[in-house]
Amino acid sequence: MGSIQTPIPVRSSGLLENSCGYLLQELQMIWDEVGEDELEREKVLLDIEQECLGVYRKKVDYANMARSRLHQELAESESEFTQLLLSLGERSLPERPENRAGTLRQQIDSITPSLRDMRLRKRERMNQFQAVHGQIQKIKAEIAGLSEYDDSTSALKVNENDLSLKKLEEYQAELKKLQNEKSNRLQKVERYTGQIHDLAALLGVDSSMTITKIHPSLNELCGIAKNISDNILAKLEDTVKSLEEEKKKRIEKLHHLGKALLDMWKLIDTPEKERQQFFHVVNLLVVPSEKITKPGSLTPGIIQQAETEVKRLDELKASKMKELFLRKQFELQEICSRSHMEIPSPSEMENITQLVDSGTMDLVHLLNSMDEQIAKAKEEASSRKAIMERVDKWILARDEERWLEEYNRDENRYSVSRGAHRNLKRAERARVTVTKIPALIDMLISWTREWEEERHKVFLYDEAPLLAMLEEYIALRQDKEDEKQRQRLEKKKVAAGHNNLSLSPRPGTSARRIPNRNLNGSFSNASPTNRNLNGSPSNRRLSLGAQQAGTNSFNPRSLGTSFMQEGTKPLRHPMYAQSEYATHLRDETASVVSTFSGPLSPEI
Q1: Dihedral-angle region of residue 419 (phi above 0 means left; psi in -120 to 50 means alpha; beta otherwise)
Q2: Contacts by 206-212, CB closer than 8 A, 24 or more apart
Q3: How does DSSP assign 101-151, residue by residue?
Q4: Disulfide-capable partner of 265 in 270, 338, 535, 551 (CB 3.0 to 4.6 Å)?
Q5: 513 falls in which pLDDT band (50, 70, 90)?
Q6: b/e string for 520-537 if b means 16 or more Cβ within 10 A?
């Protein structure tokens, strides 16, 4: 009864049949014993058969349901796998099972590992998306200026249907763009805050308080992330512009004060020690505004000190202005006097002094005008320098000429006396100097005319035209030369008459020799032998006179006519009066006579 080995389904059916047959046999035995009707027996057997069919039906239905669930599970796994492939952006997977053979359970078991791997990859990809998306949202919140940001995972919504690498790269590119923008904004914030610190230090303002007023996060002491929103950047930019405007205003104010200080210092001649205290203010005039960065250079205290100093100097200016005017007036007179230029008239200066005392004249304008006149006077003095040097040489040569004339008029100039040899040497030098006067006069006239043509004005020497002085000197010198020529002719006549008298004997005195008296009253004891050897005394004196005349000769044709002023005083009257000129001619005559009389002496 069951010793033969059969498959499980067959064995179960045989056991069932054996069990059912045994029970039917036992049932037949019972019926037989009881005497059950055949109809009743058929009915019972039919019931038993129906009940067996019901049990089988239930089992079959249950098996069908299990099979359906397996089919559904397999289909869902396939569907999920396919969806994961699509969401991850992958067309196929190497580990994906393509073999559909085997039971449902075998198929489910073959796809389960791949599905598990895909789910894991999806989870990792989701984490990547959430991380990138979270950073994007955070940076956007920072740019928007949101003080609080919820970075929890639940707050992040990621599209699970598109988790491809392409989409992830798009998110990463957006993140990188936002990071660059954030970096640029942070750099702007740093630049603006740095400018605020520098400008605040320059202007003497508390930079920390200024920055904190814009936003507390900008202060590093707060320890929170800096706000980089558009609003904060705009406020920072406005603050920097405001400080720049304030810097510009203060620089302009200090420039004005610096110029005022320079003008005051120049006007009242402030000592160097007092100026040093405000050199930092004056130096701002030559420093570009963008290079003024030293902390504390534009503080209100600096401006107040400069204003106080300008006010003090302004009060001091009024008391020293007259003194400065008189000093500049004296300086102008000194320049004009040294260069022999025209000096402002005393009456004009007196009128200006009265206006200064009355306070009706602008002193600053007056001093500026005086400075301009001094500058012009210096420039003109410089242009006159070369001419004035030659004028000085001419005046010295003229003085030597006068001394030589007086020396030649001295009857005892050849006598042996103390200092005579020095006079002889000076006379020799004076003759050399006098010979240079014509060339010097020519040069002076040429240079003076060029100067006058260039400047379109007359060259004045102590208020007298220099050309007039030179030309009058030329005329006077020519008159002297003409007078000397006339005296020489007269002297020749006198000498000839004297020789005739000395050669003709008088009655009763033929054997007696009378000594010759010269024109000056001296006697000549020269022997005839000496006279014969050296020529006649008259010839020697004439030769000497001719030599001196040659020394003083000069060609007036190269010079023009002009007007001469004696000395360095202004011309108020003619230089030589008629009586003086006559006396001078008498002196010249005596000098010429003295030259040709007396014993002969060595030539000078």
Answers
A1: left
A2: 210/239
A3: -S-HHHHHHHHHHHHHHHHHHHHHHHHHHHHHHHHHHHHHHHHHT-S----
A4: 270
A5: very low
A6: eeeeeeeeeeeeeeeeeb
Q: Residue 443 carries which DSSP code?
A: H
H-helix or E-strand spanning residue 23:
helix 8-34
By the 8 A CB rule, do 204 and 299 touch?
yes
N-terminal to C-terminal alpha carbon distance within the chain: 192
Residue whose pair of structure tokens reads 């203060």 in the numeric block: 250
pLDDT at 163 exceeding the cut of 50: yes
Q: How many C-beta atoms lie closer than 10 Å to residue 483's C-beta?
A: 15
Q: Which residue is associated with the tokens 């003194």?
A: 323
Q: How far is CA 41 from CA 35, 50, 192, 301, 333, in A?
A: 10, 14, 111, 133, 172
Residue 260 CA: distances (Å) to CA of 121, 203, 254, 257, 263: 81, 22, 9, 5, 5
DSSP 559: S
Secondary structure E strands in 416-553: 460-461, 464-465, 516-517, 523-524
Q: Which pLDDT does position 9 carry in this prediction?
A: 47
* Residue 301 CB coordination number (10 Å): 9
| pTM summary value | 0.47
156: Cα within 13 Å, side-chain hemisphere: 19
CA–CA separation, 517 and 539 (whole Å): 16
CA–CA distance, 164 with 515 (Å, rounded to integer)? 157
pLDDT in tens, 443-496: 999 999 999 999 898 988 888 898 999 999 999 989 988 988 898 898 888 888
> Contacts from 500-506 at CB under 8 Å and sequence distance 24+?
none
Alpha carbon distance 197, 203 (integer Å):
10
The residues, ordered by sequence, that sit 6+ positions from 243 with a Cβ below 8 Å of its Cβ are 195, 196, 199, 200, 203, 205
pLDDT at res. 11: 43
3-state secondary structure of 516: strand
Q: What are phi and psi of 57, to 5 degrees?
A: -65, -45
pLDDT at 574 over 70: no
- R_g of the chain computed on alpha carbons: 69
Mean pLDDT confidence for 195-202: 92
Residue 560 neighbours by CB under 8 Å, 6+ apart: 445, 467, 470, 471, 474
Of 209, 208, 204, nearest to 301 by C-alpha is 204
Helix axes 230-268, 363-409, angle to 10 degrees: 30
Contact between 517 and 597 under an 8 Å Cβ cutoff? The reply is no
> Rounded distance, CA 392 to CA 41, Å?
182
Q: What is the pLDDT of residues 411-424, one digit of tens each?
A: 777 777 777 788 88
Q: Please report which residue ranges of 215-299 form alpha helices under DSSP H.
A: 230-268, 272-276, 279-282
